[in-house]
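Shipment paperwork, digital attachment
Item: protein structure file
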Amino acid sequence: MASEFLSEVKQGMRLRGYALKTEKSYLYWITYFIRFHKFRHPSEMGAKEVETFLSYLANQKCVAIGTQKLALNALAYLYNQHLNKPLGDLGFHHAKSPRKIPSVLTPMEVKQLIEASDGKFRTLFSLLYGSGLRVNEGLRLRVMDFDFEACALTVHDGKGKKDRKTLLSQHLEPEVSALISQAKALQIRDNKQNVGPSLPYALDRKYPHAYKQLSWMYIFPSVGLCLHPYTGVLCRHHLSDSAARKALKKAVNACGFGHKRIHCHTFRHSFATELLRNGKDIRTVQELLGHTDVSTTQIYTHVLGTHFAGARSPLDDIK
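Attachment content:
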């Protein structure tokens, strides 16, 4: 029962265009929910069982607030969308997440980390910082996304399925060109086996020879081939984010920055903070980051020692 039902849930999410990571996460929590209730079918349960499960996660398992939200979102999808059996107002209310000021790097620290990185990861981290990208946005970049003439980078299918334009440093042209040459050589070898880069949606059916076009090739291709998660076609995907995290950890240790909380997203935080520090308009920064709400971008104003609007400590006036 469970496997057949979960297959139906998966198909429903794909029909609605949910991201692959969201699909995997929701299926995990829905499976957990079913097992917790001794494999009862979700259609036989409702708000009461959902409340019991969420309370168990919060009180017995002591999961983080973000994890509680994720489990709630998965079950809300299950009942509100898939089963068309709205849960209504649940008695369960998770705690609010405390606002955390993001950790950022100084330009000199960014330079040290980039210089301590190896090969393609040096270029990747440069793009994350220079263009304000999320790590998977950087790893998914294809040859077609670069426009050095306009100093612009196109991010396709970012968070919330949104496309956007952002900044592109001219200093990266030699490095990116070298990666494109390597990707081209790899694509030529793959094409001899009738294999190419993984393509979005049903593009491979609409354009059967698109996999031979250099424009679709990833500049950070994976080492090995894999089956496309949707079509099952043999293809070459991009590098995994775990490879980027390992490379960054190595650079952090080499620079002696182990005392700082640094991850791939720190480059994006530092990009936004530096733009604001240099007097850029917060709406412009919002657009470059792809934030839907400016309040999300405003967190970076709290990172600055001297507020970007000119506020400073009153102690400075009497010293």
